[in-house]
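User: My instructor asked us to take a sequence, write out its structure as tokens, and then describe one feature of it. I'm not sure where to start. Here is the sequence I was given:
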Amino acid sequence: MPNPTPFGSWPSPISADMIASASLRLGEPRLDGEDVYFLEGRPSEKGRVVIVRRTPDGELADILPAPYDARSRAHEYGGGAYTVHQGVVYFVNFADQRIYTLTPGAEPRPLTPEGSLRYADLVVDARRNRLLCIVEDHSQSDQQAENSLVAIDLESGEIALTLAEGDDFYSNPALSPDGTQLAWTAWNHPNMPWDGTELWVADLDERGRPQGRWQVAGGENESAVQPQWSPDGRLYYISDQYNWWNLHRSDGGEGAPVLEMEAEFCHPQWVFGRFSYGFLSPQTILTIYTQHGEWFLGMLDTETGKLRPIQTPYTYFDYLMVSEERLVCLAGSATEPNSVRLLDLLADEWHTLQRASDVTVDPGYLATPQAVEFPTANNLTAHGLYYPPHNKDITPPSDEAPPLIVMSHGGPTSATPSLFDLRISYWTSRGFAVLDVNYGGSSGYGRDYRQRLNLQWGIVDVQDCENGAKYLAQQGLADPARLIIRGGSAGGYTTLCALTFGKTFRAGASHYGIGDLETLASDTHKFESRYLDTLIGRYPQDKDTYIARSPIHHYRQISAPVIFFQGSEDRVVPPNQSETMFNAVRAKEIPTAYVLFEGEGHGFRQAANIQRALEAELSFYGQVFGFAVDERIPPVEIENL
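Assistant: Let's start with the prediction itself. The structure tokens for your sequence are:
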């Protein structure tokens, strides 16, 4: 037998360069006649989002020339940045946030005028030659943006009519098949769309003007999302009125469940343009749903309420679109990367149109996730995915347990899926174990589980990450002396809280994480500006709680090394938060490092920066824990080491 290789030092063919250069950000597939469209975010082009068309003969072609970039900045997170109707594409260009008209083969033509408006959720109203969309007005620089639902004339590009205004937020304009009714969702501070929304419907006259409106569903304590009209003109939507996001239907009055099931039929609405069901006929819906961290595809009979699971090789689905016996979506599994996939229902055949990664990796270097449940505070149970270290070429040490990286996802109202991710295999193939935690507050487990984090952010998430790490250590699956925590955005906040207020972890990495909750409450964009009311408390009324939960005010309690990664153009978590926290840790003479990426926002899109972040983090752990790192990786400079 070969000599064992120390955990963390295993040679691996999965490089940071491979991950950065080969990973695409895929999104928003659309069906238009026989053609399929989708978005590709390309790190190799500094994150530019390109519109790609796939024709019936299988040919893929970019239809959006450089330097155009199909990205909306509405809500800062964007989404819903394009739509297609009879071969004509309407898209939001990132640089100026104007809507452009694009006919394949021609140069994009600006539709809306220059100004301070941002657009999202584009819907063509062909009958009236207009575009329905959400508009976010930033013309008053000293005030928060104003949101409304409008109709834009496709000839002049001007706003022809405001369809709904007065609420803080709008999304999902949905036009009935005969064009006589319009549905949409709206919500107000301090709610986020998963806390409470209202579903409205208005009759439209011949000119498309609303003639009265009425509320169908939703409220302060009900999240009603994704309204869509069936081919026979009945309104469907998803609601968590009974704890789980289930499909509902309204026949003119209040809605009711089509079925009741302990499963979630949608993702949380962080971005525009996300759908999780569609109609094959008035009686048949294709839908995705999740249970126990895994996603499924099913066919729902709307008359009987019976759901028939469809067998697929995939465990993750998103962005579902249905039309004429075809389904297009994003789908993947633990061994198959997230990809744009087309299901021909008549032939019962899946076709992969584009993969997020074309990298082929021997399965001998890939770890298979194992769903774990573990006890946590208050006699509750939390969830996660455990990935053991795995490398076919290596004999691991038999007399020690591996270092463990606990990953806390962003959001925090989000979830980690069972989905192929080379960024996880980057660690496991080098001898790290990984626990990806769906802590209390995560989506996919019902409203009650999601609300565990209400007024408890920085407590429940930290407890679940700590208890998950301790659980694995007790099972002999992790070395209690080498427990690491890492996360981005909200996950970065959980990381900093765990390192500040707890003693479980011996090192950490914060990717654009939050150190000062007061700064976040006063220096962030409109969409999230009241998010902390639910997670922490009202500000400034509950200022003491904000201070008590902000790691920046308690840096003297940190005793573990930490590395910070930050984008210079981040509007969600401004750079001053990471810089202030870094300076505080450095002043305490704890090993620390700070890596700033110029031109990056909230999350890193450029290939060179994605690569450097991974390599610098590995270098940091190697220096801190004293194991050898590939000598080709440039070491990160660590203060106080």
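For the description part of your assignment, you could build on this observation: The radius of gyration is 24 Å. Try explaining in your own words what that tells you about the chain.
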